[in-house]
Design goal:
single chain, alpha+beta, GMP Synthetase, Chain A, domain 3, 4-stranded mixed beta sheet, 5 helices, globular
Length: 127
Amino acid sequence: MRASRAWWTSLAVAGMVALACGREPVANPESAASPTPIEGAADSVRRENPMTMKTIEQVQEEHTPTLMSLNGVVGTFIGVTADDRPCIKVMVVRRTRELEGSIPSQLEGYPVEIFESGEIRPLSKSQ
């Protein structure tokens, strides 16, 4: 009976080793337990930016009122950086050192860039 038990134990261990060798290594076991659903471009941004679980649209919407309260800021929009990463652009009448010091370089993990747009006025009805 002992030989039989040792044989079954060896077979079980060999089976577990064979199963383990066929799997991909998991760097973070928690991430393997709950995969992130793919939801288009916003999800790819989240993968690039693990610091935030919010979309760039949500971050822009939440921070625009505070940015707009700064003297000289006339709007915000979503754009891309020179290296094609999504970013939040802050439109200003004129770029000043004061504004550069007041506008953060990142919001919740997304880059922020200053865009000098000049004053924004509505077009007259005749145009």
